[in-house]
Design a protein that fits this description.
Chains A, B: InterPro entries: HTH_MarR-typ, WH-like_DNA-bd_sf, WH_DNA-bd_sf. Two copies of one chain form a homodimer. Chain A is mainly alpha-helical and about 140 residues long. Chain A has a single domain (about 25-140), classed as Orthogonal Bundle (Arc Repressor Mutant, subunit A), CATH 1.10.10.10. Chain A has helices at about 5-25, 35-45, 50-60, 65-75, 95-115, 125-140, and strands at about 50, 80-85, 90-95. A three-stranded antiparallel sheet of chain A has the order 1-3-2. In chain A, helix 3 (about 50-60) packs across helix 4 (about 65-75). The longest helix of chain A is centred in the first third of the chain and has 23 residues, at about 5-25. The interface of A and B includes residues 4, 7, 128 and 130 of A. Chain B binds a DNA duplex (30 and 30 nucleotides) through helix 2, helix 3 and helix 4.
Chain lengths: ~140, ~140
DNA sequence: CCATTTGGTTATCAAATGATAAGTAATGGG
DNA sequence: CCCATTACTTATCATTTGATAACCAAATGG
């Protein structure tokens, strides 16, 4: 298989993962937050504490819009801002207790669906999967 | 590694792929179509000919909204509708010549970036990657 | 200590997207 | 032949998202 064919396979793969992700995460997001807000919360949950600039950079949302959405999230008591002693311009963002609980429940449910999906795979296959994830992570994703 | 830990790894993996995809596809979409329209064109390009219902189902866009966006795309001469002889309610959608050219160029550029990204991997590693994609495709994605 | 950069906010606007109701026309099953 | 269903359309509305300008305050670097 040449590299062009591998690209084709990669495209198919990406599409399939996208679909699986959609299956795993559908109906997870609470109704009272928007999709963008939910994805910001996901990012905070995984990377907290984070600054506004980090959110803006990583999620490709402009600073003004990040600021706006974050303000809404704090108003909903889902996350909190803390001042940074060393640099008083910066603010660190963390999930509030309610936000943490919400995201814990969400991840719990997604994880459950994932386990359900792989419940039939054997222990050896499980290792194959783990190796596969590592291979792609190291050889394709962290290119340079 | 237990299954819960594998889930963690899967989440990390998904995030990384998302970021890579963003890198590969940024600034590819022409300015005169919206993100949703572009993703519809991607889907048509890969699956043509398709019906409106298929687009609606696969992309998780309601029929009215699919109809609206497709109307805009045909008005921009990027795709065409054909009547189906057997069932006159249905319509098959294909890219127009201009649409095909546009998507060919887009895929060409994305493919180029992908090749650039894997240009340093050896022939053996290439096979590792291919095997990894197959493993995930069969053992995780097509779960039932 | 002044100019520039960084980190963030507020306000405002336009565009994109999502949701719903209501309708047409064709099909298909009793 | 009629009723329910399928496939799609049109219209309309609310919400979300993206983009821009203008601003403040703290830091940083000559």
């Amino acid at each position: 298989m040449d590299r062009a064919a591998l690209f084709q396979k990669f495209v198919t793969f990406t599409t399939a993962l996208h679909e699986v992700t959609h299956e795993l995460t559908k109906d997870i997001k609470p109704d009272d937050i928007t999709p963008v807000q939910y994805s910001i919360l996901e990012y905070i949950a995984v990377s907290q504490p984070v600054t506004l600039s980090q959110i803006s950079d990583c999620m490709h949302i402009s600073m003004p819009n990040t600021s706006r959405e974050l303000k809404k999230l704090t108003e909903k008591n889902l996350c909190e801002k803390f001042d940074v002693a060393e640099d008083r311009r910066k603010q660190l963002i963390r999930l509030s207790e309610a936000g943490q609980t919400m995201m814990d429940v969400a991840f719990q449910r997604i994880g459950g669906r994932f386990l359900e999906r792989i419940k039939h795979v054997s222990a050896e296959e499980l290792e194959d999967i783990e190796r596969a994830l590592d291979v792609l992570q190291t050889k394709v994703f962290q290119g340079e």
